[in-house]
Amino acid sequence: MRPYVSQQCWNADGTKFIFGFNDTLYEYDILSETAATLDCARVDGVHLMAAVSPDNKIYYRKSGDGTWCIDWNNYCKAKISEYEFNLISVTNDGKYITGTLVGASDNPTTLYRFDVCSNLMESMTYNLSSDNGSVGINHVQINPEYPDTVFFCNEGNTAMPDRMYLADWSEKTASNVFVQASENGAPAEYFGHEVWGISGEKMYWVSFSDSGTKASLRGLVRSDKDGTGREYINSDYKYWHCYPSGDDKWIVADTASGQIVLVGADTGKSEYLAKFTMTSWAHPYQPHPVISINSSSVCWQMLYNGVLGCAWQDVSDITK
User: Fold this and answer.
1) Distance (Å, whole) CA 173 – CA 175
2) Residue 106 has what DSSP assignment?
3) Pick the CATH number of 1-82 from 3.10.450, 2.20.25, 1.20.58, 1.10.10
4) CA dihedral 219, 240, 183, 131 (to 10 degrees)
5) Helix, strand, coil proportions of the chain in percent (round to 5)?
6) Span 18-71, pLDDT tens digits
7) What is the pTM of this model?
8) Is residue 250 a contact partner of residue 265, using CB atoms and an 8 Å limit?
């Protein structure tokens, strides 16, 4: 799996990760410390239009040429669909892909789910209220283990009370199950940067440290897949993006002041990892850190001597 807006994604054993630059898909091998070109692929700023399943299949978008798959075990590649998805999301078994479609609308209201085996495309339309500055559906992510459960967000203002939605594909319905707290009629939480855990049992996100967010509601948050059992895990830093490990025990996050932090999801304890230089709040300068499925390493995007690239760090001494 991948975070919805990451440049990077690890293979199963944490020895390689993919990244994108200038509409090219690359891999980096941390053992040999070498990079190699895999194929041309759509890269919109920081958004590498690709996802990786736990069995090492890379699903990626080519501009004007549909969706492709590389078997990372043997580097065989094949076209799997004529459709092009924004921010590809894939189930663990590689059977379903979700997203919004390229060119469908500047204000998308339709989710799409593609059955890779049968080549069947399904759609579901949900009209979001524009009262809170919504610009449409975004961050579409199919649950890795439960393909009838699809997350999407009401893109726009992170302070809106109805940002995070779950769609029930079997019923073609959606509801705002991750309700943001309010106080005196105004939002008391600002949500964003949502991502499923690989097990499919947990949803993770950040409750931002904005002026409207109550101190007790800030930081890294997770809940059960149906929106119940919400946990506020850690607020030691002003978190920005987050991503969980494959066993749901660790969360890697970056901060608004330029730190990479590892947090124990069950213990709530944070471990400072690294400092990066903040040059801009805009893409493509956001780090979007990712922890490998086996919790051995983390990687993120950063500027080094004025050059945009990727960094990685071994964290096995912490997570073992």
Assistant:
1) 7
2) S
3) 2.20.25
4) -150
5) 0, 50, 50
6) 988 888 899 999 999 999 999 998 776 556 778 898 899 999 998 889 999 999
7) 0.93
8) yes
